[in-house]
Every structure is written in C-alpha cells, then in structure tokens.
Amino acid sequence: MEDSGRVASFVYRNLDALTQIVATLDTHSDAQIFHPLFWIDERGEHPAPHTVVSAEDVDRGAWRVNPGIAAAVAPRAGFDGGLYARHYARKLAEGGKYPLALWPYHAMIGGIGHALVSLVEEAVFFHSVARAAPPRFEIKGNRPLTEHYSVLRPEVLEDHEGRRLAEENRPLIEALLELDAVVVAGQAKSHCVAWTMQDLLDEIRRRDPALARRVYLLEDCTSPVVVPGVVDFTERADGAFRRFTEAGMHVVRSTEPIEGWPGWED
Question: Is the pLDDT of residue 118 over 70?
Fold first, then answer.
C-alpha cells in the first residue's frame, strides 16, 4: 500500500506533465501453468505456492500436468500437455528466464484482487477527467499455458509443435516508443516491471539505443517479491535496474520535482 500511495501522489502532483496513463492488469484464473492447480505429483498432490518447477523436475515426472484440468486448458483437440510442459520448462531455461515458479492465487478475474488498488484507481480516474485523457488498460496474464510477466510479451510464444500461443503487444510497444518520456511504476520490481523494461530495452536497442534516455523508473514506487524465509528477489531486481541505468534509463524518485529529472527538459 505504501508504494500505491506514492504512485497516487505522483499522479496528482504531476497532472500537467502526464499526458497518458497506461495501467496493466494481471488477469488470472485458477487453471494456469503458474498456479498449483495445474500440477500434481505421483500421489496426486498439488505443489505448495512458491514451488519452483525445473525442466529436470518435469522430465523425471516429479511434477506433471493435472489430468483433471488438461482438457480445459488445451488449445486444441489432441494437445499433449505432458510434451508441452517439458517444452515450456526447457524454453524458460534456454531463454535465460526465471524458472517456472508457482504463485499463490492472485489477480483472479472477477475478484477484488484483479482491480487496481483503490488509491491508484482514483488517481487514474481523476487524471482522466482533469486532462480529458482516458487511461489505456492493458490486460495480460490470461493465457493458461504461459507466464506473462512483461506486458509487452509472454514468456513463451509457441508450443512444442511450433504453433502460436500468444503475440507480442506490438501496438503498446509502438505507442510507448512514440512518447517524449515513459515513467514506470508498479509491481513487482523483480518480475513484471523488470521483464517489461527488459523487453522495451531490447526493442530500443534494435531501433535506437539513445531512446533509453526517455525512460524513467520510479524506484520508490516499486518493490521486489520477498517472502521471508521462502524467496527474496531483491538482488535480482537491483541487478535488473543496474542494467537499465547502464543502458541509459534513469532511476528517479517520485518525490523529486519532475522538472529536475535528468534530461526531462531536453
């Protein structure tokens, strides 16, 4: 809630400078590859939240696709969920992504957790009315067979037969690169923020590395995933932000006057 309060305050203080707000909405259901319901062990038990499912685990059958939901998540008749699971885990490893982590059920469509935090929603609505600039809402994470940390693309685009599972969000990529500046806040610093920024940086490097100077990361409006005694992604999150600053992006604080940010008036 502390990060949310800072985001809302930043919007109110900078209504004159913010021309467009893009809100990304994780949109999940129970039977998705990153939720416990998707997997069972040899006894038919589901894994605990925060279990890491490696390619080796899938290959040796330590975790297998729950046959009770296999048909519900299959994109077509005859789809082999077991083959896909092995393919998916390998693709994550080959692509340098996080290994598959099973999350507690969250951002469930139809539930209160799917909505923006009220403080932020009110600020976004106020901005919309004050600036006559409707916000852009981007749904992500509703594909059952792939994680989708980055709003710009899912973790895996094709299944084990080379058929397309999902697409990059090209319209949003193009819209962001046309802006004079992009200011980024949200959760989590170690996952959705980090991978969105990495995908944006990859696109920037293909076009013009100098565009990285247009990106501002609100360091006090984001935080890494930390579950005491279970997982702590602080180091990974900080490492990602170091890579972004080395590429030319700016790490700033929401409480600093926006006019004083490096390069803002250029």
Answer: yes
